[in-house]
Amino acid sequence: MKFIRILFRWLVLAIVLIVILAAMAFLPNVQTWVAQLALDRQTGVHGSLDSLSAGFGKVEIANLHLEFDGAVLTVPSLEARLSLTTAAMDRKFLIRSLVAKGWTLDLRRAPAPDKVGAAGLAAPEGAVAAGAPGQAPDAPAQRAVRALRGILGGWALPCDASLDGVDLEGDILVPAPPGRAPARVHLTAKGGGMSAGHEGSFAIDAEAAVADSGLSVDTVTAHGRLTAAMESPRAINRIGFKADILARGGSLSEDLVFSADLAAAREAGQEAYMLDLSRDNRHLATILAHLPEATRRFEGTWKVDLRNSDLAPFGVDRSLPTIAAAGDGTFDADGAFAQTHVAGRLNGAASHLGVLTPLLERLGAVTFDAHFDLSRGGQSMRVDRLSVSVAGTRPIAVVKSLQPFEIDESTGDVKVADPGGDWMEGSIQGFQLAWLAGLADGFTLAGGDASGDVVVRAAKGGFAIRSKTPIVAAGVSVQRAGKLLGQGFDVSASLLADYDSKGWQLQGAPLTVANAGRRLATIEGKASLASESNELTAIAGTWNADLYALASLAAISDSNWAKGLSATGDFSAKVGAAMEIDGKLAVTGHDPAHTVSASVRVVVDADGATRLLVPVKIAFGPSVSEVTADVTYTGEEAGSRIYVDLMSENVTLEQLGLLAAPFAGRGSASLFSDPAAWTGGPKTVAGERDRIPFWGNSVGRLKFQFDRLSAWGHDFTGVGGTLNIEHGSVVLKDAQGGLSRHRLATLGGSISFDAAAEIPYGLKATAALNEVDAAMLFAASKHGQEEPVLEGRFSAACTITGSGINLNDLAGRTQEEFRLTSTAGIIRLLKTRVGDSIPSAPSSGSDTLGRLGSAVGSFFGVEKGSIGSGQTPVGKTAEAVLNFTYQVSEIGYDQLTVTAIREPDRTIKLVEIAMTSPEECLTGSGQITYVKDLRLSARPLSLDLKFGVRGAPADLPSTAGLLSSEKDSSGYTMLNQPVRFGGTVEHIDSSQWHDLLATAANRKPAGPDKDSRGSKP
Description:
The longest helix has 24 residues, at 2-25. By secondary structure, the protein is mainly β. The protein has a 54-stranded mixed beta sheet that branches. Helix 11 (846-860) runs parallel beside helix 12 (876-888) and helix 12 runs antiparallel to helix 14. 20% of the residues are buried. Among the domains are: 674-822, no CATH class; 829-839 and 875-1001, no CATH class; 840-873, no CATH class. It starts with a helix and ends in a 16-residue tail after the last helix.
């Protein structure tokens, strides 16, 4: 009995202890301590809680804080109703309700999931885990797919479970791009009814404020329903989610509504997934996938029908072109999406591509069609098949791969299956050259379209492009600033291009331009582009041109730069922050002895300032000149500044004209080869009134210095001056130079421009030359004479004035006035021989013959007294004419003045001619008529002069009956008719003067009671 009592006491004590321990287990402090101890033992999870209270059928948790994989979950309060006894004893979690509100899930520091969900499938053996050392991180799309599979992959549960009711409300913080605020998604979920053999249903509502996240909308809201079916207490066999998504605000002109349908199901031996995104009954994207348990590899199909408006909510800070694309295909991937394979086709249309880059806007509306077969694993992409065609109003380009190839995404290196074979081929058909408008300043191309074929071959870690057939375009026209420069051009180019990690190496071998079957020019060039900046770093090449063929083109037939036989050259340039250009040029004229050669050195610094040094050698047969041009150019907001220095020891004006011809435009060569062409000849005013001067906004200075300048048959020495160019004027100042031993007294002028004036251009210029030998101005003498027509020294002055609405009009309205003045000299204009036209007089007049022999014997070249011997007797009138011709054959003048005006048609009007001597005078006018391509001295001359005499010399013409009764204010008696001269400046025709004197010499006397003037003695 004693033993029984002792045993009973111990049993009672044990029961009491058990009761006490059981009672302690229900104490909140003990439960909290046990729960914290359980959290501390978990790997990969850090957690804490303020309190846990578990009673019969109810669990309450306060301030739960969990951190796992960078995600942070904070739950202020959580309440669950379930049977703890069933959960503890039978491992059945039959949750009648679950309520949690005010919670926050912070995903800002959470990495993309590396594996599927806790109960999901592991990555297949050999797959590369995302974020593994040495590997590039997964692409955003790949991370999204893997995260989705992690959510849907939790089919098996660790225990029996059911969920009758859920009431959840909280916020999720979603990471945003760098520099953007995270998006906050407010989520509510209510529902239940999920248990074995039943499908649970949960209402899901979410709203996200994304105005600061970089998206093009302000808010995104979603309202949907989540369903989950359980085939057993521990297995979920189907999950579905359908929702309507609304995007509004931001840059959207109207609200966008999308519908999403997501489903995942576990079937016999495989898992099936479906994702469908639609809008307005149009399926934007549909993905169907299967995951067989035997292969553990996704297999499925995809289909898209997208427009740019569908992507508008996701366009981050940039506009999208107008795009409509549709396609379908297949794909397969391993369980971790580390190895993927996609094949299919994609076609569509696009326009307004200029929002991507302005150059693409010229393509207008285009369509495209692509077929592809791609595989990706790790950092390598394999392309087994690829073909892309792009078309506008006509086909543009087709690109097709000829063999499989791989691309290393980290380095860009390409590896093909057969390195010795062609990799890709491309074809350009109907490429409109008008799309290239604007690539060169002011130039546009039109007409024929470009076509050609190229092949691509992998080489040196990159690829090489070669022309399979030359790229050709026929009937091309070129315009600049609306003016047609040429048309009917045929262009052909063979392209060579190499690309590697260093960049591009481009070569045209060659580019040929022809017209009407005749080659105009050929260019062979090389260029290098850096891979980092895609900017040009170096360029070099050679070129040649048929100038004779170029000059035959209608658009440039009146340009002088092309008037030659041929031109060749080479060039090279280094491009960077500063640029250096070197080149050579050689031009051959129609006469092979006429050549121009030059070396060009250009340096452009980082600020855009340009220095140009050009030594030029010009050879016209034995005449060789060397001219150096030193040019400095700087660009400014208000306009550019250019400074030019021209220097030469010995040069001709015609040679300078060759240098200026490309800049002076039409008729420029004649300005330098013929001074009579300076007005430009007859012109019709073409074009509108200039709003800015022809020199634009440029300002600067042209300084020239020539030790010897040959022009118009004369040599000028020490020629120099400065031409200052300002916004409103061009002014010549500090001009100097000499003609033989004579210096230019003055030389200056200006062209002004007044934008507000009705006629904006004004021209004023003056020049003066002192003490010029007449032989230099009138070098040509009468035909058959050794002595010049004029001897003496002159002062020459020139005044040029003009106005116009544009440059052509200014040239057409320019008037030049010249004035030549001499104070002492000899004029032989009236020298002529009339002896052969005078018959012999009767022999009885011996006294007359004696006088004639004494007076004019020497004129006929006979000895004194021979006429008086009866050899050549003449009459009294003839004797007076012969003596008069001898008297005026050389006139020593005191004053000679010639005033001339050059008319717009280039005719030189001699408006005033005045010569005076003590006993003779000449007055009158005339002109030198312009004839194209004739030098000044060979042009037609016309003079109408009046001759007068006074004093004793008047007796001879009076005796011959040549004088009138008219006298001028100085007492000179005029001849009874004017004297006319013709011919040319170098060969003056004095036949009218000769005939006048011959007629007077052969006139019969009037009678014995009258003198030669018909008056009584």
